[in-house]
Amino acid sequence: MGAMLRTRVAPALLGALVVLAVLSALVLAAGKPLGESFQIVLQGATGYPRGEAFGPLDAWDAVLHDLTLLVLTGLAVAIALQAGLFNIGAAGQLLVGALAAAWVGTQTGVPAPLHLPLALAAGALAGALWAFPPAWLKVRRGAHEVISTIMFNYIALYLTHWLVTERLKDPAGDAPQTAPIAEVARLPMLHEAFLQASWGLAIAVLVALGLWLALYRTVWGYETRATGANRDAADAAGAPTARRTTEAMLLSGALAGLAGAIEVCGVQYRFFEGFPAEYGFDGIAVALLAGNHPALTLVSAYLMSALRSGAYHLHAETGAPKEIAVVVQAVLILYVAAVYLRKRRIEG
Hints:
Helix content: over 70%
Number of domains: 1
CATH architecture: Orthogonal Bundle
Structural class: mainly alpha
CATH topology: ABC transporter involved in vitamin B12 uptake, BtuC
Strand content: under 5%
Number of strands: 0
Distance between the termini: 23 Å
Shape: globular
Number of helices: 13
Order of helices and strands: HHHHHHHHHHHHH
């Protein structure tokens, strides 16, 4: 218990203090009263205290939307890190997954019961395929996955831009976007009368719990974690490190692609230029803040989504720069990256 407190809980609490300090400094620099600003941030994150035009349901709609994407992209980064890989390519994998899901969702002649599962599976498969070249380069040629995944982010960005403006553009309009997906390819809402979050949230939670069990209760998970902890020792013990490395990268890409597919099938109902790929980068902070633990990823993803919602609500209510949210998230990423690198240095 003491070890867990030192390695996971204590850094998380210190990170929360760092975030509060930076947020306070930015609010004061913007010339806004600190106490009132924190109350508005809390209202944006939780819905309390209630406002005349903004209540708990408004806050939770925003938080749960972000939570769904951040859980999956956080898991994508976490599973790669568990195998000793730093997947910076979740943003690109999310983009290709979203476009693949949008394409399948617009196809005709697909049996209605299969349309939604096929669209989600297409997104996950596209993300996995996009992660395969960096995995192959890492295992076969020793190429650093950080460089290759960053390069594939740019390829995904410009490839999806070309496809959505040329090949897959909605013929019924001028905007660079696909046609809307079929009704049967859309994820239903959790509760249409109240929360507007889709069942994608339930999928994300189930994936997190399943990955937790797989990593800590199976031989595959043990070998994957051993590969990430010490590849040479895992090799000496007979673990198939090359296979586990490749599998972890493919699974990482599949999770990021699934996040894009859920965004298409549950929220946007189409792919468009400027699709929100930044969640792929935010997943890095989510994973590192959770210590790469799938269950704790749920907690860190909630904290990130609440912070994002609160900061944007502050902008809407007071006119404080909306970039405050971006700066605070960037500081959090730097903090958790520093904690991760320190831990790796101590262990190495």
